[in-house]
Design brief:
The protein is α+β, with helices and mostly antiparallel strands. Helices cover 34% and strands 19% of the residues. It is built from nine helices and ten strands. It has a five-stranded antiparallel beta sheet, covered by helices on one side. Strands 2-7-4-5-10 form a five-stranded antiparallel beta sheet, covered by helices on one side.
Length: 297
Amino acid sequence: MDNLENSFPPSPAATRRRDRGYPSTAPESPIPGDLSRAIVTRRTSYAHGHHIKPHWHARAQFVFAVEGTMRVRTSRRVWIVPTSRALWVPAHTVHEIQMYSTVKMHSLYVNDAAGAGMPSSCVVLSVTPLLRELIVRAAALPASYDQAGDDGLLMRLLMAEIRRLSPCALDLPLPESADLTRLCERILADFATRRPCGLDASDMRTSTRTLYRRFLRETGITFARWKQQARLLESIRRLAQGVPVTAVAIDLGYESPSAFSTMFRRALGIAPRAFTAGGDGAPLADSARPGHQSARK
């Protein structure tokens, strides 16, 4: 993943860069292009499996792939970003990106003035057909585009459309402590095995009750809810790559494809096939979006 903030107050930015697992030594990734422009665009292509190591930018980044699926991670959160979604990354946020297929990425690097009113933390947003075309058009502009003319108008319309986007529940919080982080990494590496929580607690030499309390305190959600959300994000990644619904359900340990489909529809308000390769990835219904709020806030 990419993004960060400008060179203003060092305190909040430095604090974010010192997050556990993402040391302050993570390098800044310079933004190529004409930085006198409010919005700088960049088109890049990556092979399946490519990994962009932890880094940060001096501007906010709007990460969008016209093709392919990405996983973006910060020290305390993970996001799955298929083609129907994009990720807003505030300036100075240390992040890394994993490509789960061939990815054609279009990034927008936005200065403070142009990004006014956008969220102060990372958020996945539903991409409208209009916004997709605006991004493609903007990415084709010359680096020193005319901000006072039609090109500048295009960029302002693009940001106006971004501010109208709806946030999506496609993120996964991560704990802070090392032992809980190892537990989460084990689950993320083996979704098919459903171990009893008591066994996890025993391995950590603690009680199930203590494990539950610690997990809720560090992530803000219950352990059971976290595991369900982790499987949901993994299912979206696989569906976006064209893996059949039945195969996804079996690989992720669901009793049947119908049980998986029921969970998916309950969580996102749409059927799993909406996220298969070539699917429309329809925007979530507000009622299906936990903590729904406008990106303007």
